[in-house]
Amino acid sequence: MRLLLIISFIVAQSVGFAQEQSLTISTDKESIMIGEQMEFKVTLKGASGDTMVLPLIEDTIISEIEVINRSKVDTSFEGTQLEQRILSQTYTITSFDSGFFPITPRVALINGEEIESNPLLIAVQTLEIDTSKGIVDIMEIEDVPFSFKEWFQENWTWIAISLVALAIITFIALKLSKQKPKEVPEIIVPVRPAHEIALERLEQLKEEKLWQAGKIKQYYSELSDILREYIEFRLTLPAMEQTTDEIITGLRHKPELSEESISKVKQLLFLSDLVKFAKENPVGNENEINFSIVENFIAETTPKQENKEEDV
Question: pTM score > 0.90 for this model?
């Protein structure tokens, strides 16, 4: 009977542990001096079968906190049945501003659902001033007479290089001015609907079978490019030049888009960034699901009139 109770307790603990989902941010020091470095660690816990995406942190945590270096994403497992998967990534950060800087909760994804971390406060201190020595006057500015001879001796090589460069540029300009410009024929590019171009590129991507061949990074790079180009042409947003956060902000200003569609686009773009920068490796049918996200978004945003013409 005692053995049965012990086994039941262990099983209950294992089940409860497997269901734990959390996102934690922490530092290895309570405070730093200006210019000093510290470690900023992000830890995401979930079940071993969950689809987990760490927060995307680029060049800064906030405007006052800079990212100097980042580690690779580390994966580990816990529990008697290895039912708990833990993703962690460590950033080396610093600051050149003094004060107390609050870090708002970061956001990760577990099975497409957002999960927030704890907030954090980072303290950056200035150098202490030794007041025991008293106040010292500022030294007066010393006047140094200008010597053209010394200046010329120090800079004659740059003067010579500048004169030679100027002569070469003048020669090329005179040579080109005497040549008649060639007539360039005007090329008229046929205008095609954005959804036609995007669906055609999706079909080509499907035929390439990149993720089936293990080329995950290339697959998500092309898939996200197709989506970004479609958003740029169809919704007139400069998506090819924007970050994921900027694209999502722009989409939220489009009243014709549902929050569900925007959330799925956000999920795909964040995952593509992680595959590219953090070497995330989606498994199972995730690749097909993300392909369908792009297909469905194109179908939902294609103008109804064009849909009717295609049906005819």
Answer: no
